[in-house]
Amino acid sequence: MAKRLETRVAIVGAGPAGLLLGQLLYRAGIDNLVLERRPMARVLARIRAGVLEEGTVRLLEEAGVADRLHREGLVHRGIEIAFEGERHRVDFEALTGRRVVVYGQTEVTKDLFAARQAAGLPILDEAADVLPVDLESERPKVLFRREGESCELACEVVAGCDGFHGVCRSRIPAERLRTFERIYPFGWLGILARARPVSEELIYAFSERGFALFSMRSPTVSRLYVQCDPNDPVEAWPDERVYDELAARIGPEVAARLERAPSIEKSVTQMRSFVAEPMRWGRLVLAGDAAHIVPPTGAKGLNLAAADVGLLAPALVALLKENDPRPLERYSETALARVWKAERFSWWMTSLLHKFPEGDPFRDRLQRAELDHLFGSTAQQTALAEQYVGLPLARA
Ligand code: FAS
Ligand code: PHB
Predict the structure, then answer these.
(1) Contact criterion met (CB below 8 Å) for 126 and 144
(2) Which of 23, 43, 68, 379 is the most buried (most CB within 10 A)?
(3) CA 369 to CA 43: how far, in whole Å?
């Protein structure tokens, strides 16, 4: 006999999308329960995104979890793009009047988790065999196993915040689900190191040896990436090779400031663009990586997840507190309009800044022309800036 549990919104996944949704629903007085496959300690240790759009900061403020972000986050007013020994600054503030905040996703997740714990709200981690069912009824359920027990969670809505490898997307009937995908012929090797960043702002570097990104987490912690073969094992990249490639791809002036501190985290990230349509099926709604993936070049992944939740939370409030289903019926269409713009921007930034291995001379010349045009055009820099700082958040 399964153990019966009940809530209004069952949230599958305790990443940033699931925890932010849980917090916004809690503050709106809507009961919710989070199911997470992994131990929370593992979720909280993940090193992922680093740049927050102003819209994401606003949502974290609305969730009541932005105090540490405002104390420790680094406000950035632009980025630099390096190309053939030159560095060109894209001035977000001058071009758009807006900025971004550098504050690790790891910290965002910790802040959301701490708020959930402080409110005494449940996260059932190490939940196995999670399976949303009866999604076309107004009383869906989520079946799962935990601590050796079969459980049945009755609810009114299932929020699929379970990432790219989650189960929820697959619960949309195959004949109704459309997916779109592009896999890139390279990956990113990323390291975290206790070393002063080489610059005040992020530097994205294009070079014949491949892409490099000089980011950070604080004035004393650097986050550094080099383009690599997507099948490279981490072992193929000892620290010395990482730093040699970073130096070779950025040039001697910046390389001279590169502190070669031992890496404290190292990982290879695959690069793909992916969208699943629709983002709602009956009483199942998808948010974040469960519905879409972008290559990290445009710093959109985490921000897209937050934007989905910024749409979904008020739509669920309308349905569950005002008995108005219309915003939820519009959710998928409204969310996808933003998703596809972010997909295009992330694909454009990735195509602009990476060395493609297949040796297509025409393509290579176009890439150089695109970079030359960007550096000479305020209009093109404004287009980059307005998408990097984040397009205005829509409402369903
Ligand atoms: P997440 O994947 O963060 O969270 C989903 C959660 O659901 C996970 O905790 C998972 O364990 C859980 N889950 C999965 N299946 C489940 C099931 N069946 N039952 C219960 N729980 C389940 N974005 C950037 O902007 N910049 C970056 O530099 C960047 N780097 C990245 C590096 C890596 C290795 C990865 C994988 C992603 C990176 N991203 C980056 C994108 C990343 O930040 C995502 O956009 C962000 O984590 C999305 O958050 P969620 O949608 O909550 O998904
Ligand atoms: C990061 O700091 O992890 C980061 C920053 C910008 C990106 C991708 C990753 O585009």
Answers:
(1) no
(2) 23
(3) 42
pLDDT digits (tens, 9 = 90+) for 117-163: 999 998 999 999 999 999 999 999 999 999 999 999 999 999 999 99
Spatial separation of the C-alpha atoms in residues 171 and 209, rounded to whole Å = 42
Q: Which residues are catalytic?
A: 76, 204, 296, 300, 388
Q: Does domain 3-77+99-181+272-361 have CATH number 3.30.110.70?
A: no
Rounded CA-CA distance 380/369 in Å is 13
- CA pair distance 170, 168, nearest whole angstrom: 5
DSSP codes, 191-222 = EEESS--SSSS-EEEE-TT--EEEEEEETTEE
C-beta separation of 22 from 32 below 8 A: yes
Helices 378-388 and 326-353, packing angle to 10 deg: 130
| H helix or E strand, kind and range, residue 146 | strand 141-146
- Please give the structure tokens belonging to residue 185: 């012929």
CA separation for the pair 275, 180 (Å, rounded):
5
Domain boundaries, the chain: 3-77+99-181+272-361
- The ligand minimizing its distance to the Cα of 14 is 1
- Residues 234-259 pLDDT 10s: 999 999 999 999 999 999 999 999 99
Ligand 1 near 104 CB (within 6 A): no
In this structure, the chain runs to a length of 396
Contact by Cβ (8 Å): 396, 327: yes
d(CA 273, CA 269): 13
CB 223 less than 6 A from any atom of ligand 2: yes
The one-letter amino acid at 340: W
Distance 158 CA to ligand 2 centre (A): 30
Q: Which two tokens stand for residue 278?
A: 């629709």
Residues ≥6 apart with Cβ < 8 Å to 200 = none
For the beta carbon of residue 102, count every other beta carbon within 10 angstroms.
Answer: 21
Compute how many other C-beta atoms are within 10 angstroms of the C-beta atom of residue 128.
Answer: 11
pLDDT digits (tens, 9 = 90+) for 3-56: 999 999 999 999 999 999 999 999 999 999 999 999 999 999 999 999 999 999
On whether the CB atoms of residues 226 and 246 are closer than 8 A, the answer is yes
